[in-house]
Amino acid sequence: MRPRFVDCHSHVVPSGDDGVGSIEEGVALCREAARHGTAVLYATPHVWPHLVLTEAREAAVREAFAVVRANAELDLRLGWELTPTRALLDEDPHRYVLEGTDRVLMEVPFVGPADLVFALAELTAAGGLQPVIAHPERTEAVLDQPALADELAARSYLLQVNATSLLGRHGEEAADLGWDLLEREVATIVASDGHRPTRPPHLDEAYELAVRRLGEERALRLFDGSELLRPLRPASRAASTADAESPARSAARARG
Ligand SMILES: [Fe+2]
After folding, report:
1. Which of these, 14, 157, 165, 243, could form a disulfide with 174 (CB 3.0-4.6 Å)?
2. Edge-first strand listing for the sheet containing 81-82
């Protein structure tokens, strides 16, 4: 049976960041993702130090998201990708959850120290949410000091590796570290971080490689939303079943 992927990280809704520039481009990427096996796709616009989430920006993103979702031909959901800043430490992290989950996606900055991601993750966890740490294998801090990834995982945060890293698109170092984190089960999620037609939200190629390296059962768990959609606590299971439709149920429906 062909696996159906859950991709928790992409930039397929126009938001003023470096993702898609138009609704048409976003819709085309969503449809392509569906053709490549993705059933549930999270659009996660960047929240950058210089592009924060003002109310006006959020309203515009939600409006664009609704149009892309209506035409996406997959289950499109909204989240955000936080670049840690001091200003975010004064905010309520619940604003930024990945829709339908208790999780918040945040990146380790590409350059510079990882202190702020630890602080933001702590704040998030203190709020009863679980941080999902995006692409540690691509960052200066973790490449210099891989033990930082182990430390983040030891705090029960989820670590997410990019499919493109596994395919060697960001260099040998990122590929080696990405595979190492998966093999040691320090990272437990693979996502696309798809941005544009030349860097599309595809997971199938990396999945095939993971099946060969890790075996089908382990590979599937990295790509099918097992970790992402697992209820954080028994109480949230009750809450999610009370909702109209949880992502897990929706993914199951998409699997047929
Ligand atoms: Fe991203």
Report:
1. 165
2. 46-47, 81-82, 103-107, 130-134, 158-162, 189-191
Distance 81 CA to ligand 1 centre (A): 6
**Distance, CA 252 to ligand 1 centroid (Å)?**
26
The tokens of 103 are what? Answer: 């999780």
- Cα 199 to Cα 18, 19, 55, 110, 224, distances in angstroms: 11, 10, 29, 18, 21
The model's pTM is: 0.91
Q: Is residue 130 within a helix (H) or strand (E), and if so which, with residue range?
A: strand 130-134
- Give which of 179, 255, 186, 182 is closest to 224, Cα–Cα: 255
The number of distinct structural domains making up the chain is: 1
The helix or strand, by DSSP H or E, that contains position 158, with its residue range, turns out to be strand 158-162
Residue 134 CA to ligand 1 centre (angstroms): 7
β-strand partners of 82: 47, 106
Mean pLDDT, residues 67-73 taken together: 98
Taking only the tens place, the pLDDT of each residue in 36-50 is 999 999 999 999 999
Distance 59 CA to ligand 1 centre (A): 20
- For residue 9, what are its two tokens? 């990280």
pLDDT digit string, tens, across residues 159-208: 999 999 999 999 999 999 999 999 999 999 999 999 999 999 999 999 99
Q: What is the CATH number of the domain that holds 122?
A: 3.20.20.140
CA-to-CA separations, 126 to 2, 8, 58, 119, 157, in angstroms, rounded: 38, 22, 25, 11, 12
> Which domain does 157 fall in, by range?
5-255
